[in-house]
Amino acid sequence: MSRETLDKRNLDKSFDELYKLYIDEIYRFCYSxxxxxxxxxxxCTQEAFLVLYKRMKQGESxxxxxxxxxxxxxxxxxxxxxxxxxxxxxxxxxxxxxxxDSSENExxxxxxxxxxxxxxxEILNEKEKQLFxxxxxxxxxxxxxxxxxxxxxxxxxxxxxxxRKKIIASLNDFNN
Length: 176
Hints:
The protein has 176 residues and is mainly alpha-helical. The chain has helices at 3-33, 38-57, 65-94, 102-110, 113-123, 126-137, 142-149, 153-175.
């Protein structure tokens, strides 16, 4: 058996031991930091272990692999938070159907409320109507809406963004 094969086996064995030892702990850490979002917690956990494996493969040894995994997982969680924050900032700019493009503002201004209501009724399905009502008519917070709909806040933000785009596109088509 070649030395390379032996080293690879030792690497895999060492990594497997660390994986079995810390996977649940690191996952729970990510899960709690990401507001119980299992999908992103799993992603961050996998990324942390992938970094560990790559560094071990390069020959690096770790005196405190647990601390390294926590620090690495924390960095991935922080990146995820930054992405969520950026999405929230984008949505905040779009809240209240304030459309930055002046031509789109003109479209909304030319439609009267009854016509707008009828148009929304035609293009939105029941879930979208509910989301529209909660967010734009009742002006509820995203956290409250996500709790009521049983979805994550991130998912709620994405749905609101898609709803806004759908409405704007439909209004553009309607006006043309």
